[in-house]
Amino acid sequence: MRPDLDISVRHEPEETVVALAGEIDIHTVSRLVTTVEESLEHGSSRLLLDMGKVTFCDSQGLGTLVVLSRTATRARSSLVLTNVGPFLDRLLEVTGLRHSFTIRAAQ
């Protein structure tokens, strides 16, 4: 069975929230990129990626998160990771990528 990633988008006055549930990997990153790029077109100054239900993230997923952060910066927005679970937090720490992201504590 192929892994999946459920994505939902909620536009709020100050930010856009993209909630993710499932796996961020080579099979799902293209959908994530498309969703984030479309969300940035709304002109929000902040894009929150809610990672609370992410169960897996491979190297392709990590690389994509870095690229999306740069994409947000070019769009005059900021990408913020929120609800980062222990698995993903540890992965970001071990890979040295934790300092590359703004991470908001669980809400």
Which architecture does the CATH hierarchy give at level 2?
2-Layer Sandwich
CATH class: Alpha Beta
**Number of β-strand runs:** 5
Radius of gyration: 13 Å
The portion of residues assigned to helices is: 25-40%
Beginning-to-end CA distance, first to last residue: 32 Å
The quaternary structure here is single chain
Order of helices and strands: EEHEHEHE
Q: Rough shape?
A: globular
Q: Largest sheet, order of strands side by side?
A: 1-2-3-4-5
Write out key terms for the chains shown.
anti-sigma factor antagonist activity; STAS_dom_sf; Anti-sigma factor antagonist; STAS_dom; alpha/beta; Anti-sigma_ant; five-stranded mixed β-sheet; 107 residues
Layout of helices and strands, plus pairs?
Blueprint: E1 5-11, E2 16-24, H1 29-40, E3 46-57, H2 59-74, E4 78-82, H3 86-95, E5 102-104
Parallel strand pairs: 2-3, 3-4, 4-5
Antiparallel strand pairs: 1-2
Descriptive overview:
The chain is an alpha/beta fold. It has one domain: Transcription Regulator spoIIAA (2-Layer Sandwich), CATH 3.30.750. The protein is 36% helix and 34% strand. The chain has helices at residues 29-40, 59-74, 86-95; strands at 5-11, 16-24, 46-57, 78-82, 102-104. A 5-stranded mixed beta sheet has the order 1-2-3-4-5, with helices on one face. Helix 2 links the parallel strand 3 (46-57) and strand 4 (78-82). Helix 1 packs parallel to helix 2. Residues 5-107 form the STAS domain. One of its GO terms (molecular function) is anti-sigma factor antagonist activity. This is Anti-sigma factor antagonist.
